[in-house]
UniProtKB/TrEMBL annotation:
Cofactor: Ca(2+)
Naturally occurring in which organism (per UniProt): Crotophaga sulcirostris (Groove-billed ani)
High-level lineage: Eukaryota, Metazoa, Chordata, Craniata, Vertebrata
Gene behind the chain: Plcd4
Keyword Acyltransferase set for record: no
EF-hand domain span: 118-153, 154-189
UniProt-recorded name of the protein: Phosphoinositide phospholipase C
Residue ranges with Basic and acidic residues bias: 384-397, 449-458
PI-PLC Y-box domain residues: 476-592
Keyword field: Calcium, Cytoplasm, Endoplasmic reticulum, Hydrolase, Lipid degradation, Lipid metabolism, Membrane, Metal-binding, Nucleus, Repeat, Transducer
Length: 740
């Protein structure tokens, strides 16, 4: 990795400043300073970096593409909502040196098992933060400051004792392995050690049979338990000698509990685990609203970054509001507002790069909503490819014979939702005698008038229809196959005249009214046809509505503003974090039956076993983060709130008491209990807050998952930030029981 490299930092086509970039000796921090003043402008940790993109893979670098070749350009992408850092190196060789070096630093590295507990990134981070004078060692005063930074309000005598115990050299300072000893003593988990000793006869190790007893009795592992015990020992026991004896030490036991195998999230559900051969309408689909916006709905910035972030987050339904632009070039923006515009070509190019890129499971279809206001522009003029995967060699769409294809049949395809001239059968068989229909959800009155006229043979003379036919290119219409926009005129009308290849959209208020007035009919409708829900136009700040009430009636495409953090996006991320993060989650069987009697307002209408009881013992927390922008030396007073999101009767929340001045290792040991009538639709959200008796509590961290993905037993919950990114090593330790 180069150090002290002079590169151009680019913010726009006209803003390119030279800065010196340097990787610090700790290999964890990069700072950059002004070439002119020598002043350090900023610094960031390698742990803040999500990925590095080579070439012109940002709008800023695309704007200077004619001036600088792609070999010299790269983009550093940060977690959360921090802006990207676009850089231009002096040569292709320097660019490659930085790109490859950053990739090596941010990719997960395999630590030896012996040091895995103490050699993680965050320990080095803490040492760097505590070593104020940067001499590579820490005196007791620096340790005291570090404890405050780590959210620990510890008795000074106890802190001094830990310090002296770790100071093996008796130098009055801690360095290297001495700091590791101090950290290990500080993070001693008494509650885990007590659990370990409950199953260990000698209190020092778990034999294979003792570990099997623990797995069966507490973790409720009832299949292949002996084989699982052997695998856990091989995987998590740090001592080769102990491992060879097929036993597990206390350190190995802790490593297991802190690992994905000890997580509350069932590891088998991380990968694809559901039936993917059902029709598209049988799945909940991760969906975004106005995907191009990364700020508000009126004056916000439109950016291809919105598409990249959404796709990498597992989103499968994107919105592309396409309008006529200058010189016949279509643009994407929030129509009739002051939001900025981006060329449609750039959006299509971005979808081509990222739609099926992030993981193998992302090969399932990407429905795209939008194409509003496009004039006589066909798909090829817009840059929509007609490749062999989605189209036949004759230029016509290749379509499975069924009007309701399976998700498996739609792999590697992009589906367009929009207006269409005529029916799907017309596209497949050629024009027939039936009058063309170009209706969608935005022109209900006009479409109704056209249908009325069609019944009396006047359609071909309709000026409104002729205008729509002129403004919608036939070739673009032909691309709309399974997601034709139609106006909604009632569930009975839809059942009698609509097709599975058609879909309607509802604003959130309209959807809520349908849920109140006809919950069961809504569930039945969604068993055979797609429905899209979108935020109210009053949400100009890009706020979100709760998606849960829409999922309760089986709505598949529940579009949210992905750029806005909060409970609503936590629920979305929580539901779609399963099944390989492919963006599709199979609906419960009672929501896939067109004759279902299920109504979310009446849980007794659900077919299946009765209510279940979820019991959660919140035991402890570990290294909880400090509240953003808190005062120096402030230590949080954490509490845990558990929320149930589901059908109305299951909606509930309970919380623990707060623990005063301890964000490092708080102990609650409190039991919370919930009854779930429709567990198949329930999401469980764990929230940690900093208690404040005079004002609203501050957010600390959260984790949300579907009830179906919970593993019972002693489990760790690895907390996420408000942006949904990991905040290691912050976690909760809980005990879960599920009973009927």
């Amino acid at each position: 990795m180069q150090q002290g490299t002079l590169m151009r930092k680019v913010k726009s086509k006209n803003w390119k400043k030279q800065r010196y970039f340097k990787l610090q000796d700790d290999c964890m921090t990069i700072w950059y300073q002004s070439k002119r003043t020598g002043k350090i402008e900023s610094a960031f940790s390698i742990s803040d970096v999500e990925t590095v993109r080579e070439g012109h893979q940002s709008e800023v670098l695309q704007s200077v593409a004619e001036e600088f070749p792609p070999e010299r350009c790269f983009t550093i992408v940060f977690y959360g909502r921090r802006g990207n850092l676009d850089l231009i190196a002096a040569s292709a060789e320097e660019a490659q040196c930085w790109v490859q070096g950053l990739h090596q630093l941010i990719e997960p590295r395999s630590f030896s098992l012996t040091s895995a507990l103490v050699s993680c990134t965050w320990i080095r981070d803490w040492f760097q933060k505590g070593d104020k004078n940067k001499d590579g060692r820490m005196n007791f005063k620096e340790v005291q400051r570090l404890l405050k930074m780590m959210n620990v309000d510890m008795n000074e005598d106890h802190a001094l004792q830990l310090f002296q115990d770790a100071d093996k050299s008796e130098s009055g300072t801690l360095e290297g392995e001495e700091f590791v000893l101090f950290y290990k003593a500080l993070t001693q988990r008494e509650e885990v050690l007590s659990l370990f000793q409950d199953f260990s006869e000698d209190g020092k190790k778990l034999t294979l049979l003792e570990l099997v007893d623990f797995l069966r009795q507490e973790q409720l592992e009832d299949e292949g338990t002996e084989q699982l015990a052997m695998e856990l020992i091989d995987k998590y026991e740090p001592s080769e000698t102990v491992r060879a004896r097929h036993v597990l030490s206390a350190d190995g036991f802790l490593m297991y509990l802190c690992s994905p195998d000890g997580s509350i999230f069932n590891p088998q559900h991380r990968a694809l685990w559901q039936d993917m051969s059902q029709p598209l309408c049988h799945y909940f689909i991760s969906s975004s609203h106005n995907t191009y916006l990364i700020e508000d709905q009126i004056r916000g910035q439109s950016s291809i970054e919105g598409y990249i972030r959404a796709l990498k987050r597992g989103c499968r339904c994107l919105e592309v509001d396409c309008w006529d632009g200058p010189n016949g070039e279509p643009v994407v923006y929030h129509g009739h507002t002051f939001t900025s515009k981006i060329p449609f070509r750039e959006v299509v190019s971005t979808l081509g790069k990222y739609a099926f890129k992030s993981r193998a499971e992302s090969s399932y279809a990407v429905p795209s909503q939008g194409l509003k206001g496009v004039g006589g522009v066909g798909p090829q003029e817009c840059g929509i490819p007609r490749d062999s995967k989605s189209h036949g060699g004759d230029g016509h769409p290749r379509v499975p014979s069924c009007l309701s294809p399976t998700l498996q049949e739609l792999k590697h395809k992009i589906l367009l939702k929009g207006k269409k001239i005529g029916r799907l059968e017309d596209t497949l068989d050629g024009p027939g005698d039936e009058a063309p229909d170009v209706s969608d959800d935005d022109n209900g009155a006009e479409a109704e008038e056209e249908r009325r006229r069609a019944k009396v043979g006047e359609t071909q003379h309709s000026p409104a229809l002729q205008k729509d036919k002129e403004s919608l290119a036939q070739s673009l219409s032909d691309c709309v196959i399974y997601c034709k926009s139609v106006s909604f005129r009632g569930f009975q009308e839809a059942r009698s005249h609509s097709r599975p290849s058609e879909m309607s959209s509802f604003a959130e208020a309209k959807a809520r009214k349908l849920i109140r007035d006809a919950g069961n009919e809504f569930v039945r409708h969604n068993a055979w046809q797609l429905t899209r829900i979108y935020p109210s136009g009053m949400r100009t700040d890009s706020s979100n509505y709760s998606p849960q009430e829409m999922w309760n009636v089986g709505c598949q495409i529940v579009a949210l503003n992905f750029q806005t953090a909060g409970m609503e996006m936590d629920l979305c991320d929580g539901l779609f974090s399963q099944n390989g993060r492919c963006g599709y989650v199979l609906k419960p069987s009672f929501m896939r039956d067109e004759e279902t009697i299920f109504d979310p307002s009446d849980p007794s209408s659900r077919e299946g076993p009765g209510p279940i009881t979820l019991t959660i013992q919140v035991i402890s927390g570990q290294q909880l983060p400090k509240v953003a922008n808190s005062k120096d030396g402030a230590v949080i007073d954490p509490l845990v709130r558990v929320e149930i999101h589901g059908v109305p009767v299951d909606q509930a929340h309970q919380e623990t008491k707060y623990i005063e001045n301890n964000g490092f290792n708080p102990r609650w040991n409190e039991t919370l209990q919930f009854q779930l009538h429709v567990p198949e639709l329930a999401l469980v959200r764990f929230v940690v807050e900093d208690y404040d008796k005079t004002s609203r509590n501050d957010f600390v961290g959260q984790f949300t998952l579907a009830f179906a993905n919970i593993k019972p037993g002693y489990r760790h919950i690895h907390l996420l930030s408000k942006d949904g990114t990991s905040i290691p090593p912050s976690s909760l330790f809980v005990h879960i029981r599920i009973t009927e």
